[in-house]
Amino acid sequence: MNIFRLAGDMTHLISVLVLLLKIYATKSCSGISLKTQELYAMVFLARYLDLFSDFISLYNTVMKLVFIGSSLAIVWCMRYHRVVRRSYDRELDTFRYWILVGACFTLALVLHEKFSFQEVFWAFSIYLEAVAILPQLVLLQRSGNVDNLTGQYVFFLGAYRAFYILNWIYRYLTEPRFTRWISCVSGLVQTALYADFFYYYFISWKNNAKLQLPA
Amino acid sequence: VEFSHGKDEL
Predict the structure, then answer these.
(1) CB contact under 8 A, B10 and A183
(2) Which of A60, A70, A181 should we substitute to test contact with B (largest number of B Cβ atoms within 10 Å)?
(3) Which DSSP string do the residues of chain A spell out, in sequence order?
């Protein structure tokens, strides 16, 4: 564990907590893409198949349970909670993500570290996470004004993978046999997808204005 | 220590 990875995990945790706060405090999920939440639930379920088979550390196991539990809870809340579900932007959140799921799974069947059930699903989860934010970014552009908590949620979600890139550079420089091309390349693509959001987020922060994404 | 399939990250 290094400081970059810890910062990344904490930033990721903060993004989940901000989202839970937004839904719990405002009893609303307006501006949040259910499709991105469902993609993230798939990402965690596919990536943490080793949850019960490999014990790495208490921290690792607890964080995996937190990420799986929170993503499923948010999906359940947005689908079935009688108050929250009413504020879901159903007609704006129309990204056909099964194309993304199919493409990522096909890529994982071709490009993986080892051809085993767990490894293919792990590679699938890495590729899927890289594009999971797309429905959310599309929804933000369509829904115009973005409330603060939603903007902060997307910001922290993007920032965590940027910390992970620093972690991979650090591990590459300090650990003799560390190579993790699948994670690194996907992580770069993932962070790059946030580039324009980060730009508009910085502008809104600098001008102390509402976050506006161009349509 | 090398983990079962090197996945010690979240």
Answers:
(1) no
(2) A60
(3) --HHHHHHHHHHHHHHHHHHHHHHHHS--TT--HHHHHHHHHHHHHHTGGGTT----HHHHHHHHHHHHHHHHHHHHHHH-TTGGGG--TTT----THHHHHHHHHHHHHS-SSSSHHHHHHHHHHHHHHHTTHHHHHHHHHH-EE-HHHHHHHHHHHHHHHHHHHHHHHHHHHSTT---HHHHHHHHHHHHHTHHHHHHHHHHHHTT--EE---
**Cβ <8 Å between A64 and B4:** no
Q: What integer is the mean pLDDT of A202-207? A: 94
Cβ contacts of A64 on chain B, cutoff 8 Å: 10
Residues of B in contact with A183 (CB under 8 A): 9
ipTM of the shown complex: 0.85
* Nearest residue in chain B measured CA to CA from A180: B6
Q: Which residues of A touch B10 (CB under 8 A)?
A: 9, 12, 60, 63-64, 67
The predicted-structure confidence for A49-60, as pLDDT tens digits, reads as follows 999 988 999 999
Structure confidence by residue, pLDDT tens digits, A33-83:
999 999 999 999 999 999 998 899 999 999 999 999 999 999 999 999 999
